[in-house]
Amino acid sequence: MGPRSDPKAVVDPRLRIYGMKGIRVIDASIMPRIISSNTNAVSIMIGEKGATMIKEDWGKD
């Protein structure tokens, strides 16, 4: 995850893939840095936030 100007970034802050329409990545792979603890809780939080973003953006396009 990162700004469009970052060559290593794949998704924007709303988890949409750069250069594609209608697809998001909502899993632990979006974390810019690997954490040193269990990723289960973090992955659940990413999923919950992603679901909320999808609900907010529904019908905007």
Automatic annotation (TrEMBL):
Residues 1-47 form the Glucose-methanol-choline oxidoreductase C-terminal domain. InterPro entries: FAD/NAD-bd_sf (IPR036188), GMC_OxRdtase (IPR012132), GMC_OxRtase_C (IPR007867). Gene3D superfamilies: FAD/NAD(P)-binding domain. It holds the Pfam family GMC_oxred_C. GO terms for molecular function: flavin adenine dinucleotide binding; oxidoreductase activity, acting on CH-OH group of donors. It comes from the Eukaryota. PANTHER family: GLUCOSE DEHYDROGENASE [FAD, QUINONE]-LIKE PROTEIN (PTHR11552:SF227), GLUCOSE-METHANOL-CHOLINE GMC OXIDOREDUCTASE (PTHR11552). Belongs to the GMC oxidoreductase family. This is Glucose-methanol-choline oxidoreductase C-terminal domain-containing protein.
